[in-house]
Amino acid sequence: MNHVKLLFFATIRERMGTKSLDLELPADLTIHGLKDRLSADYPKVKESLKSVLITINREYAFDEAIIPLNAEIGLFPPVSGG
Amino acid sequence: MTFNMQHPNLPTIFSITEDEIDLNDLLAQITLASTGAAAIFTGMVRGETSRRGSTQANAGDEHQTEFLEYEAYIPMAEEKMKQVADEIRARWDAIEGIAIVQRIGKLYPKTPTVLIACTAAHRDTGVFEAARYGIDRLKEIVPIWKKEVSPSGEFWVEGEYVPKAGE
User: Fold this and answer.
1) Which of A27, A61, B68, B92 has a 20 to 30 A CA-CA distance from B148?
2) What is the reported pTM?
3) Is A58 near chain B, with CB under 8 Å?
4) A20 inside 8 A of chain B by CB
């Protein structure tokens, strides 16, 4: 198993009702697999996940990426700083 | 202040802060003996959004803003600000100092929220374009968000840019 930390920001943080979540994931799970699992376990964020940006260890990551051990994973909407 | 490995003598400042943005202090930190020009962009909270000066995309979106509430993924945001500074130096090699600062928390109309400043020996070095590039890239890849609170309710401002691999 792979112990990861999820960090939520902006709309997805509000919908989750928490800033972070620690999860045990199967080894070699991809970002796509993680999204499927979150959609199933947290239906309230299913819509948000369609346009979510995801980071692994503070770099942008995409569906096919395999989640490394002890990763810090960020989930958030397109950014709006300035 | 941190120094870029490729440019050990050139000051590069990047920070997310809850404190007031101090333009004079930042400018002093990115001014070298050889500096003769600085281009500074700063954005502030707009209290009234009117048709005047609006683009077609937001025409008719007239409203009042009570305040904006900013949040950031701070360690990643600072890393991405450094990346923006590196991209500026790769495009405009005459740039001397760079400061990129985003203020977060609850910010009221007329308050500066962001500052991008670039310095160079002269004004015709690309220094204006470099500052423009800096604010454009910050709005694309630096993980910061804002929620607008107005008399008619609150809503998150969401960007549109989807970063590509390696950004």
Assistant:
1) A61
2) 0.93
3) yes
4) no
Q: Which residues of A touch B146 (CB under 8 A)?
A: 80-81
Q: Is position B167 within any domain?
A: no
Q: Which domain holds residue B134?
A: 2-50+60-157
Is residue B47 within 8 Å of B110, Cβ to Cβ? yes
Q: Are A79 and B114 in contact, with CB atoms under 8 Å apart?
A: no
Residue B89 sits in a domain of what CATH number?
A: 3.90.1170.40
For chain A, how many structural domains are there in total? 1
Picking from B104, B108, B161, B166, the residue whose alpha carbon sits closest to that of residue B138 is B161
Written as one letter, the residue type at B55 is T
B-chain residue closest to A52, CA distance: B162
- The residue among B15, B65, B140, B158 with the most chain A CBs within 10 A of its CB, best to mutate, is B158
Q: Which helix (H) or strand (E) holds B139?
A: helix B127-141
pLDDT digit string, tens, across residues A9-63 = 999 999 999 999 999 999 999 999 999 999 999 999 999 999 999 999 999 999 9
Instruction: Report d(CA B103, CA B99) in Å as an integer.
Output: 13
Q: Does A5 touch chain B (CB under 8 A)?
A: no
Answer for the pair B84, B134: CB distance below 8 angstroms, yes or no.
yes
* Tens digit of each residue's pLDDT (9 = 90 or more) over B55-94: 555 555 788 999 999 999 999 999 999 999 999 999 999 9
